[in-house]
Design goal:
7-stranded mixed β-sheet; single chain; mainly beta
Length: 119
């Protein structure tokens, strides 16, 4: 089992940046594809980004491609999401997930961290 704790959310102006972190517990962290999901008010949870267990392959939703970068440090059991050029439509609760899917689910996910982008 993997437990995930997100941090780094907050309030930022449009055009700004934030870096989310996800600390994972569990000896099997490095074997999982890890990723981020998000859920905006009144909307379903959606896929944002994912990274393979080795870090060699990354996947992004079209809405964030070119603005967000996912990375991981297996030695620290941590996955990151660097978010640049933020837009008000990026406002959501962001969830770290193990084995995320394009339909917005995962095998495990954390409690989430709020990201609010003001216009």
């Amino acid at each position: 089992q993997v437990q995930l704790v997100e941090s780094g959310g907050g309030l930022v102006q449009a055009g700004g940046s934030l870096r989310l972190s996800c600390a994972a517990s569990g000896r099997t962290f490095s074997s999982y594809t890890m990723g981020w999901l998000r859920q905006a008010p009144g909307k379903e949870r959606e896929f944002v980004a994912a990274i393979s267990w080795s870090g060699g392959t990354t996947y992004y939703a079209d809405s964030v491609k070119g603005r967000f970068t996912i990375s991981r440090d297996n030695a620290k059991n941590t996955v990151y999401l660097q978010m640049n050029s933020l837009k008000p439509e990026d406002t959501a609760v962001y969830y770290c997930a193990a084995d995320p899917s394009y339909n917005g689910t995962g095998v495990y996910w954390g409690q989430g961290t709020q990201v609010t982008v003001s216009s």
